[in-house]
Design brief:
about 35% helix; binds iron/sulfur cluster; binds S-adenosyl-L-homocysteine; alpha/beta; two-stranded antiparallel ribbon; 10-stranded mixed β-sheet; elongated; TIM Barrel; DNA polymerase, domain 1
């Protein structure tokens, strides 16, 4: 599907046609222009011939029957992954913002690929459109969107913001900003811009270590954005938006999961608006996931110190659709 081509054709038409087409695509979720009966037949034919609505994809279903991964083929032949998680009656779509990622975090499969290219706004929003069409067949809809797929959203800020505007638009898909979350490895300028542009979006910061020494070993970009600055930007974000702020912490055995490190983390997260999501490391090759008993100990230390901590449910690790396992291959385990 190529939104650029669609826009180009519609730009030569009366203005209201673009609005009509937008509603057909995003509200009625048509997947073939033949269904666009509100458009004049000549325009319909032209769109059908030159700007197909087809989204080329292959779907993989998790053993838990709650997680689904789709490998979408883009116009230039590259592919990108998006995941649908169906949990407790809520459908959450995890989208990618880049093909690959330039930041090379040591624990992340996407990071190992390097950056192929940024995704356009159309290519980002198309991932959600794909699942919206899929769910429509069961009379269900997308409830939440998380930017936790491939790539660093704040290194592709404009296109991510452009996609959010499409997804959020009441005349189109109409997903409320409070149901959209962006996860960042700690790109401060992006956090600042987001607080201005869309303060109702949920922000998640990937921390993974309670001090710079360890963080630097795991997340190379931490050199540019030291913890002190990341935490200051987080504080500003919380103060400006008065919204809860999520910190992600993947639990890697004997690397960042000790009781001492939990205490250090608790000190760092001394703000009533902060909470931590503990994510047990998904195997990508180099490290070992923390033992469940150690995760519990770690969580207890945080809770006792007054820091809210949750353990994130693990989706789709058998289809390599879990966090950090997305690498654009069919399966990579
Ligand atoms: N680039 C952004 C968003 C995409 S990654 C970021 O880093 O935040 C989404 C989440 O998956 C991040 O919290 C990331 O740290 C986490 N993640 C990456 N590799 C992982 C792995 N192997 N196991 C568990 N979580 C992982
Ligand atoms: Fe990029 Fe996020 Fe993976 Fe780090 S964890 S390499 S920032 S996608």
């Amino acid at each position: 599907m190529d939104f650029g081509k669609i826009d180009k054709i519609l730009s030569g038409e009366k203005k209201f046609r673009a609005k009509q087409a937008g509603q057909l695509i995003w509200r009625d979720l048509i997947d073939d222009w033949t269904q666009a009966t509100t458009l004049p037949s000549e325009l319909r034919e032209k769109l059908k011939a030159e700007a197909s609505l087809e989204i080329k994809a292959e779907i993989f279903t998790g053993k838990d029957m709650q997680s689904f991964k789709a490998l979408l083929t883009l116009e230039d032949g590259l592919s990108v992954e998006t995941v649908l998680m169906r949990h407790q009656g809520r459908n959450t779509v995890c989208v990618s913002s880049q093909v690959g990622c330039p930041l090379g975090c040591l624990f992340c499969a996407t990071g190992k690929m390097g950056l192929k290219r940024n995704l356009s706004s159309g290519e980002i929003s198309e991932q959600v459109l794909f699942w919206a069409r899929y769910l429509k067949k069961e009379n269900e809809r997308v409830a939440n969107i998380v930017f936790m797929g491939m790539g660093e959203p704040f290194l592709n800020y404009d296109n991510v913001f452009g996609a959010i505007k499409i997804l959020n638009d009441d005349n189109l898909l109409g997903i409320g900003a409070r149901h959209i979350s962006i996860s960042t490895a700690g790109i401060i300028d992006g956090m600042e811009r987001m607080a201005e542009d869309m303060p109702q979006i949920n922000l998640a910061i990937s921390l993974h270590a309670p001090n710079d020494e360890l963080r630097l070993k795991l997340i190379p970009v931490a050199k540019k954005y030291p913890l002190e600055q990341v935490m200051a930007a987080a504080g500003d974000y919380a103060a400006k938006t008065n919204r809860k702020l999520m910190f992600e912490y993947i639990m890697i055995k004997d690397i960042n999961d000790s009781v001492e490190q939990a205490k250090e983390l608790a000190t760092l997260l001394d703000n009533r608006l902060y909470f931590v999501n503990l994510i047990v490391y998904n195997q990508t090759g180099d490290f070992t996931p923390s033992e469940p008993s150690q995760v519990k100990k770690f969580k207890d230390v945080l809770m006792k110190a007054g820091v809210q901590a949750l353990e994130r449910y693990r989706f789709g690790d058998d289809i390599a659709g879990a966090c950090g396992q997305l690498s654009g291959k069919n399966t990579d385990l």
